Amino acid sequence: MADMGIVVKDLSFSWPSGEIAIQSCSLEVPQGEFWMLLGTNGSGKSTLLRLLAGLLAPQAGEIGVLQPVGFVFQNPDHQLVMPTVGADVAFGLVEEKLPTAVVRARVEEALGAVNLNALTLRPIYALSGGQKQRVAIAGAIARRCEVLLLDEPTALLDPDSQLDLVASVRRLVKSRGITALWVTHRLDELNYCDGAFLLEKGCLVDQGEPERLKQRLMEVHQEAS
Asked: Coiled-coil region(s) at which residues (predicted)?
């Protein structure tokens, strides 16, 4: 794991139905880098992310991920559980049994990192989709996560909010040395990452320079149309 935030070796996973989701997948994300995971619907992107987060158990292979891990769902309503912004970020710290002053400082720092300090007392229901995603990310920062896994976090956002969120995550990765893996199918988001992986039918078929993968996917889209 030296200098690597995420290491996957020969990973395989099948659903109870027997359908293969991930086949002999191996990849590495260097510590402190922002990588993206690309592929069409059904290629296994979300399944791979859930395996990395420990939400699913692989049938074969090895996973090494720096701890603790933060996971941001496509729909933030699936993970925001408290009535206000500050309370939700603090909720993730309950298990650590920290003094109240430390919790307050961590919440303030995390919300500052995603530019939401002014909204600490705002009810969750009154937030925009982009603000909700930033609260979910703040929860991971408050827990001092080494690795951030994001499953199409811009899927429900308007175009301006999409690129604003990608840029925010890139800044966090670079300023805090977090390792991030971001699932997307939006080619313009590739402009913000250090590298990318391409999955097809559960197999890793390409990886590396974002611009090259972007060109490859644009050609595939043109052939399909």
From this structure: none
